[in-house]
Amino acid sequence: GDMGRWLSDGNIEFLGRKDSQVKLRGYRIELGEIEQQLLEYKEIEDVVVELRGEYQEDHYLVGYYVSEEEILTSDLRDHLLGTLPEYMVPTYYVHMRSIPLTVNGKVDRKSLPDPEISAGLD
Fold first, then answer.
1. d(CA 71, CA 85)
2. Pairing status of strand 60-66 against strand 92-96
């Protein structure tokens, strides 16, 4: 998933990643896998999964989802645990009316709200 380019001096310049892979508690996680599984939940119309937390030791996953009605966290967790290991299951879920987009039509990740930590587990 790494992107790079050859420089004229023969070195390789690292340009970033082309996928949405993150590292959480020693595990490499592809956020797209989690998003795909959440989209299979019948009421969910759109979804984005983000890694949040200021420092590496306090990172956690948040699932932002769009649906007509808010869905119980326990129902979403149970759904994901049917196909994913526990370390890939988001800690928090945020119900949204729509996923914010940039003017270019990409997910505006800076506009995604922080989860209400006290409401994370029901």
1. 21
2. parallel
| Residue stretches of the chain with pLDDT short of 50 | 118, 120-122
Which letter does DSSP use for residue 77 in this model? H
Contact 31, 11 (CB under 8 A): no
**What would the two tokens of residue 121 be?**
């587990």
Instruction: Spell out the long-range contacts of 7-15 with Cβ–Cβ below 8 A and sequence spacing 24 or more.
Output: none
pTM as predicted: 0.79
Q: What is the Rg, in whole angstroms, of the alpha carbon atoms belonging to the chain?
A: 16
With b meaning 16 or more CB within 10 Å and e meaning fewer, what string describes 59-71? Answer: ebbbbbbebeeeb
